[in-house]
Every structure is written in structure tokens, then in C-alpha cells.
């Protein structure tokens, strides 16, 4: 939803998105995000596009065992490193393999 996440910080801890399977965040000024796995218990896909200021995906996303894909497009390279840490943590927890997809070279290498 356009302008659903405005400002530099997003703390959705007052909300639980129990039915959400796809979370897509695009073109914003978001710098930090305090979400946990409890906010998105059935999330399958996380898509971040043109999030030029965001430096980290909360590590708690590694605890979402339904998460299958993190897709990054036109983001900072450090965000790709954050996604890779979540992917590794998921593997360490014995979850099904989660994919990290980097769409543009600005995000780093996939």
C-alpha cells in the first residue's frame, strides 16, 4: 500500500499481520525497522525495492520458518549482507532453504 510505511523508523510491534504472506516495501526513507518474527508469523516473501537508506533486515526474520524468499532491488549492499545472515541462520536452524534474490548490482552480488 502506498505510504503505508512512512518516516525513518518503523516499529510494527503493536500489530500482528497474521494473514500476510507477502510484504513489499518500496521507495521510502526507512532507515531502521524493529519488526520481529511475531509480527509476520506466516510471511513467505519479503520484497524490498529502492530502499536506499535501509541497512538491515531484523535478524528475527530468521525465525519465520515459512519465509521462502527475500528479494532486494536497488538497495544498499549492506542490506544484501543482512539477508545473507538471515539465510544462514535459517539453515542453521534446520529450516527449508530460503532464497535471497538480488535484482540489481547495486545490492551487491547474489
Structure description:
The protein is of the alpha/beta class and 110 residues long. The protein has one helix and six strands, in the order βββββαβ. α1 links the parallel β5 and β6 (99-102). The longest helix is centred in the last third of the chain and has 16 residues, at 77-92. InterPro entries: LRR_dom_sf.
Strand content: 15-25%
The termini sit apart by: 28 Å
N-to-C SSE string, H for helix and E for strand = EEEEEHE
Can you count the helices? 1
Number of separate structural domains: 1
| Main pleated-sheet profile | 4 strands, parallel
User: What is the general shape?
Assistant: globular
Secondary structure: helix percent: 10-25%
On the 0 to 100 scale, the average pLDDT is 84
DSSP, total strands: 6
